């Protein structure tokens, strides 16, 4: 109703001030709240820390009836409800940890219309008893709205996939007049499309906030010795000094590696703890609590450590292995600097990471379509890792956001030198072809450098015309050339054959001399932790 709009606006401003204690809305909050209050379906894409909760909590208080909030994380649900109760809001959750008494109380309160926000796990939403409760609520005080938090859990391509999310639309379809608001901090185009499709939000307006996190500095290093490099990074810290005593997260690809690296950091005097999905749940929640409560805890984790971590003063997020996608990387690094103070996202990566990720994709049983999507995501990640221009710009472009060079990433602070590497690229490609596309980077480089190793001798590769043609460049530079050619899909490491390099179609024009190759030159001291002067 047009005529009732101004009243709603006033109500929203009052609730913002009186209940939440905020002086003004942030970013798109006002528009989003108004739309939801007016009863429209809405999709909200906002980075972590952007203020998503208010977008459904406030309308829940302005609209009559109970707001149903679907949330995948029980721990998070608990925290949200506690926080709301402290503000005097009538909030409750209903999940597998609820006792029979608690469940009865929730049911009674919903029927009596004395609850404003009810948090439920997705599996609960689908239970007949809950559906009956919803029917009762609709017939009574009404249902204010459905909020679907962490909406990216609907995406089968993401690692947070929750099958129950695919059925949420069935439930909300029973209540056609009730507005729905889906929220997430993941915003790549594919996930967005899936949210609209699978939650059946075709007509919903989409609000996309800037995903830029200007206080996070992005730095990538060539990996030679991950542990030593990590230690150097931690000791040197950011411009302001060492990260000793600062809270941070170190992401690893495997559980075993979290143990190794956390042990290593403890030996070096850091308060480090390992975290992965294979630990007993008590150990995991103990680690989370220590991270949240104590100062200067470094959690060395797999990607299992993440969703719902809302510690504001995380000063660094380090990746000692290459993540498999940019959206994962963005989410993980986004846990740094939520307080707005300077923070660093640091990563060490090397060719072995690419081989490993490709082999994960090959071994995954998701079928060819899944593998194709995963390969595309990995390619985007590699493009970032090998970037010669502003990393933030690349990252934001991935989320369809345009920006200029940021001045706060390694490539902005120390622009890499570019060089015409057409001839070296031709040498590499021809060495790969002449050795039969059967060998990894190490052997190909030995051939280029003219090293008479046993392997070279036994394959008689010292007789090839390419033997020794690369002695003009150091080994590290050759590694860098190969990595960049892999990142550009000119070369492809075959995970089924220990990373044997093969050429792709993109290699032809380079070999034929009709295409030039401009690459990033290694900086003088690549392993050094960069800091601005
Ligand atoms: P998200 O869920 O997007 O990660 P939250 O909803 O947890 O973010 O909000 C992040 C922080 O911002 C919280 O501490 C919240 O209280 C605060 N916040 C949200 N909206 C406002 C606002 N309009 N004014 C001031 N602080 C806000
Ligand atoms: Zn930059």
Automatic annotation (TrEMBL):
Helicase ATP-binding domain: residues covered: 33-205
Q: Which GO terms describe its molecular function?
A: helicase activity
Enzyme Commission code:
5.6.2.4
State the reactions this protein catalyses: Couples ATP hydrolysis with the unwinding of duplex DNA by translocating in the 3'-5' direction
* Metal-binding found in the keyword field: yes
Cofactors per UniProt? Mg(2+); Zn(2+)
* This protein's UniProt keywords: ATP-binding, DNA damage, DNA recombination, DNA repair, DNA-binding, Helicase, Hydrolase, Isomerase, Metal-binding, Nucleotide-binding, Zinc
**Does the entry feature the keyword DNA repair, yes or no?**
yes
Per UniProt, residues of the Helicase C-terminal domain are 226-381
Task: Name the domain of life this protein comes from.
Answer: Bacteria
Record family assignment = Belongs to the helicase family. RecQ subfamily.
Q: What is this protein called?
A: DNA helicase RecQ
Q: State which gene encodes it.
A: recQ
């Amino acid at each position: 109703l047009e005529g009732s709009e101004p009243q709603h606006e006033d109500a929203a401003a009052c609730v913002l001030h009186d209940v939440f204690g905020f002086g003004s809305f942030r970013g798109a909050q006002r528009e989003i709240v108004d739309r939801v209050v007016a009863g429209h379906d809405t999709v909200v894409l906002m980075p972590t820390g952007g203020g998503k909760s208010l977008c459904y909590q406030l309308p829940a208080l302005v609209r009559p009836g109970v707001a149903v909030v679907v949330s995948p994380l029980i721990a998070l649900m608990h925290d949200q409800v506690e926080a709301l109760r402290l503000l005097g809001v009538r909030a409750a959750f209903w999940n597998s940890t609820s006792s029979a008494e608690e469940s009865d109380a929730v049911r009674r309160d919903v029927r009596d219309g004395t609850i404003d926000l009810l948090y439920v796990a997705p599996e609960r939403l689908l239970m007949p008893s809950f559906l009956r409760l919803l029917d009762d609520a609709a017939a009574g005080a009404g249902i204010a709205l459905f909020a679907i938090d962490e909406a990216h859990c609907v995406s089968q391509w993401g690692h947070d996939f929750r099958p129950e999310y695919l059925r949420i639309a069935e439930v909300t379809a029973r209540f056609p007049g009730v507005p729905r608001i889906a929220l997430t901090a993941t915003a790549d185009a594919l996930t967005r499309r899936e949210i609209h499709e699978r939650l059946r939000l075709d007509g919903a307006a989409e609000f996309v906030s800037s995903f830029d996190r200007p206080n996070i500095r992005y730095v990538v290093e060539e990996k030679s010795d991950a542990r030593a490099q990590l230690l150097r990074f931690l000791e040197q810290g950011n411009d302001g000094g060492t990260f000793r005593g600062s809270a941070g997260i170190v992401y690893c690809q495997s559980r075993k590696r979290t143990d190794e690296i956390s042990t290593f950091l403890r030996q070096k005097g850091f308060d480090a703890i390992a975290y992965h999905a294979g630990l007993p749940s008590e150990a995991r929640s103990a680690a989370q609590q220590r991270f949240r409560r104590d100062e200067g805890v470094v959690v060395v984790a797999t990607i299992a450590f993440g969703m719902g971590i809302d510690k504001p003063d995380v000063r660094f997020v380090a990746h000692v292995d290459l993540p498999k996608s940019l959206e994962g990387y963005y989410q993980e690094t986004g846990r740094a600097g939520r307080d707005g103070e300077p923070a660093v996202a640091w990563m060490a990566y090397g060719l072995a990471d690419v081989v490993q990720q490709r082999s994960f994709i090959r071994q995954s049983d998701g079928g060819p379509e899944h593998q194709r999507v995963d390969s595309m995501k990995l390619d985007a990640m590699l493009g970032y890792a090998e970037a010669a221009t502003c990393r933030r710009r690349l990252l934001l472009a991935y989320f369809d956001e345009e920006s200029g060079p940021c001045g706060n990433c390694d490539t902005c602070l120390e622009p890499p030198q570019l060089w015409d590497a057409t001839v070296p690229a031709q040498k590499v490609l021809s060495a790969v072809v002449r050795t039969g596309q059967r060998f990894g980077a190490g052997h190909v480089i030995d051939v280029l450098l003219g090293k008479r190793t046993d392997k070279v001798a036994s394959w008689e590769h010292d007789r090839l015309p390419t033997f020794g043609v690369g002695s003009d460049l150091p080994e590290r530079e050759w590694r860098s050339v190969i990595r960049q050619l892999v990142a550009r899909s000119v070369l492809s490491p075959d995970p089924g054959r220990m990373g044997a390099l093969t050429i792709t179609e993109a290699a032809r024009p380079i070999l034929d001399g009709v295409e030039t190759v401009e690459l990033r030159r290694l900086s003088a001291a690549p392993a050094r932790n960069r800091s601005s002067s």
